[in-house]
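tool=predict chain=A
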Amino acid sequence: MLVTAKPVTAVTALIVLLSVAPAPVAAQGDHSPPNTSNVHVLGRLRTDGPAISYTDIEIEQEPSRPYAYLSRALRPTFGFDIVSLANPANPTLLYSWRIENPELHVGLGAMDAKYFKHQGRYYIIQSFQFAPGGPDADLGAIIFDVTGLPDTSTVRAVARIRAPDTPGGFHNIFAYKHSDGRALLFTTTNGPHANVYDLGKAVAGDSAYGFVGRVPWPATAPDMTPYGPLEGYHDFYAAYDPNTGQDKLYGSGFNGYYIYDVTRPDAPQLAMSIVGVLGLQIAHTLTASPDGRYAVGQTEYNYSPVRIYDLKPALDGKTRTISQEVGVWTENWRGISHNNEMRWPYVFVSAYKDGIQMFDIRDPENPKTVALFDTYTGPPDAGLDMTFTNPDGVGESVFNGAFGVDVRNYDGLVVASDMMTGLWVFRVDEFKGWNGKDWNMPSISSVQDWDAGPKPRVVP
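tool=predict ok
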């Protein structure tokens, strides 16, 4: 899924993507790899909505809060669902929220959800992408207080973040506990920059939503003219680098990946770039190993493998540009992957019509498949057919199936959102939970320590 970087609609971005990417294989679903016996489905849940409506998924990380958040796209399900996983074998819908007057809104709707904790209270941030021609074209995200769960009567919206200078909303967001103690939000925009917000100020009612500054689109970025409106950031991962003492933002753009030092988020500095890699176009997602040495990058077009990059030459100051991967992985060369979550040495991938995949990169040059499970049960030629005349339609596309994946660190529970089949809850035999010290690594992943924040590396 894509966000544009100029004031055009998200629908336009999808149309442009399909025009520049290799043509999809009409029967892609027929080529999905077989499920592996080490994956165990614990539970499933599908609720209301059109045939395709589920986008990203977020799971809370504390044992006392067994909640997952499912983003919902396309009319009329613009919003999110809260699901209890107190019994993983029986996921239970607790609460659904939908945008006011959904019939008037235009665009994809709710895309990405992230939770955070601030001053003892818990919040969910839901991003939105609405296009001009309807209300809320400037709405980027809504923050909800969910501290009182499972009492759903206490759920309330506390802030609506708007970006009127770049209408079209926020396709992706990342909530991060900064080393200075602040809870920050990094967002994509429909401009050549990312926005940064102080979430503490946002929930306190700051009139600027806690706006901190912008992360620019690098002036050194390759020319994007052949791609029309596809310019700017698509996705983010942020992490503390304990070896350098820096907070780093890993930004995916459509022609490469750009890693910024955001120790001062109001004055970000470009640290290195991953550009010029053979076949790298429509760069989608980049995540980093806990020590910041390796990065796993995905692109969003058919036949493109997941690539593994060694960042050590740039970390050592020998170069500022990485232009070659050290390893690649794919279980189905005909397919297309979407998002990933790294829990070193494992990488969990949501791979559209190939479902959920897991591979091992402890030898980055020779990654190994660990687990596979296909969540997509629809016809092989079904997917998003997003046009101006048919904004809610279903037609032929590779964009269907497993959209999001998340991992609960303390017990290893894996959850996935499939655009058509909804929520899936898994366990994998090889994965009982994750702590960096078990791998002689910092305990750094997308999971944030909202109470203590980043910690220096301690090696036994």
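The two ends are 42 Å apart (CA to CA). The chain is about 5% helix and 40% strand.
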